[in-house]
Every structure is written in C-alpha cells, then in structure tokens.
Amino acid sequence: MNVFRLTGDLSHLAAIIILLLKIWKSRSCAGISGKSQILFALVFTTRYLDLLTSFISLYNTSMKIIYVGCAYATVYLIYAKFRATYDGNHDTFRVEFLVVPVGGLAFLVNHDFSPLEILWTFSIYLESVAILPQLFMISKTGEAETITTHYLFCLGVYRALYLFNWIWRFYFEGFFDMIAIVAGVVQTILYCDFFYLYITKVLKGKKLSLPA
Amino acid sequence: PEEGDEKDEL
Q1: Does B5 have pLDDT greater than 90?
Q2: CA of B3, closest CA in chain A: separation in Å?
Q3: Given this model, what pLDDT does residue B7 score?
Q4: Pairs from A53-56 (Cβ < 8 Å, separation ≥ 24)
Q5: Which of A34, A46, A114, A197 could be cross-linked to A78 through a Cys-Cys bond (beta carbons 3.0 to 4.6 Å apart)?
Q6: Cβ of A176 under 8 Å from any chain B Cβ?
Q7: Predicted confidence (pLDDT) per residue in A6-35, tens digit
Q8: CA-angle at A203, arms to A200 and A209, nearest 5°
Q9: CB atoms closer than 10 angstroms to residue A94
Q10: Within a 10 A sphere around the Cβ of A100, how many other Cβ atoms?
Q11: For residue A148, what are the contacts with CB-CB under 8 A and spacing of at least 6?
Q12: Does the model's ipTM exceed the 0.85 cut?
C-alpha cells in the first residue's frame, strides 16, 4: 500500500458517497445516468467475487463490501425509490455496444482462462468505459449540476492516482499487471476532456455547460 | 512476482 493507492481508493470512495448523498439529499437523480450506475454495479460484482474465495486484508474486504453495497444502493435509488426523477430520455447510450465487445475481449485477453479470472478481466475492461453513458448524457443535455461534476472529478482522479500507484509498484516492488495498466490508461484518458472543463469552469465557480 | 498474481487492489 502506497500513498497513491490509498488516496486513489479514498477518492473512489468519496465519488461513490458524493453521488449517493446528492441523490438522497435532493430526492432526485436528475442528470445521473442509471446505465453507468448499472455498469458500475456489474463491475464491482464481477470483480469482487473473490470475496467468497480469498481473504487479503480487513481493509480490502471492507472496502469491497462498501463499494459493492453503495453501487447497488445507487441503482436502487435511481430505478426504484426516485424513479420518477430519472431522466431516461437523455440516458440513451446503447450499453450493449460496451458490454458485448468487452465480454469478448475478456475471453480473448486475460491472465488465465478460468471463470473467476475472466470475470475479473471483464470487470477491469468494463470499468474503463462504464462512465461513457454518463458522459454521453452530459453531452446530450449540454450541462451538469456542480455536485455531479465533483462526483465525476473524484471518480476520474481515482484511476489517475492508480496509474501513479502502478508506476510506484513497478519501481519498488517489480510488480505490474498489464491488463489493469492499459485499461487504467484508457479509463483516465476518457476523463481528460472533463478534467479540462472542471478546472477551467467549475473550479472558477461556473456551472458546467457545453457550448451548443 | 508473476503478472496478475495477487489481487490486493480494488
């Protein structure tokens, strides 16, 4: 565990909590892509199946349970409790265009052709693109609430910090995982455009709105 | 260590 890894995890946790609180406090999930949230729930479910097979540390186990629990709670709030506020008309990204190729890739490029490993690989690949329905939704409506941009910022920073974690681990532990690294780079790149808007607009007190 | 050895990351 190094500082990048820990702050990355905390940033990820902050993102998840920010989103849950935003929906809970405003009693509304307007502007949030339910499809992205379903994909994240699928990511955590397929990645953390090892909760049932191996124990790594109390930190590892509790964070996994919190992540997966919050992911399902978010999906529940969007599709059940506050369903009336869900903006389905703007959440039109075709997720099968992500899930099917990612599933195929997980079968073809993995560390070991076993069910758990393929599911883990699937989750890594899927996570890298799971935010696309949310970004698509923002590009369609042309704007995002400021709290939603804080969520996205924390979520993007998390994977960027993991990149530094992997550089650290490569140098100091001789450890690297090519699948995670490549997917992590892709994932971080997808946020670059958003990072630019966040820094130039939101941090200067303006609402994130895209030119028409 | 072997690639993708132990999955201690989240």
Answers
A1: no
A2: 5
A3: 84
A4: A53/A116, A56/B6, A56/B7, A56/B8
A5: A34
A6: yes
A7: 999 999 999 999 999 999 999 999 999 999
A8: 60
A9: 11
A10: 11
A11: A19, A22, A31, A32, A138
A12: no
Q: Which residues of A182-207 are buried (b: 16+ CB within 10 A; e: fewer)?
A: ebbeebbebbeebeebbeebbeeeee
Q: What's the maximum distance between 2 C-alpha atoms anywhere in chain B?
A: 19
pLDDT score of A172 more than 90: yes
Residue with tokens 């994130």: A208
> What would the two tokens of residue A159 be?
């994977």
Q: Is the pLDDT of residue A212 over 90?
A: no
Contact A111 B4 (CB under 8 A): yes
Kindly state the DSSP code that residue A9 receives in the 8-state scheme. H
The single residue listed with the structure tokens 């946790």 is A13
- Report helix angle A3-26 to A146-173, nearest 10: 160
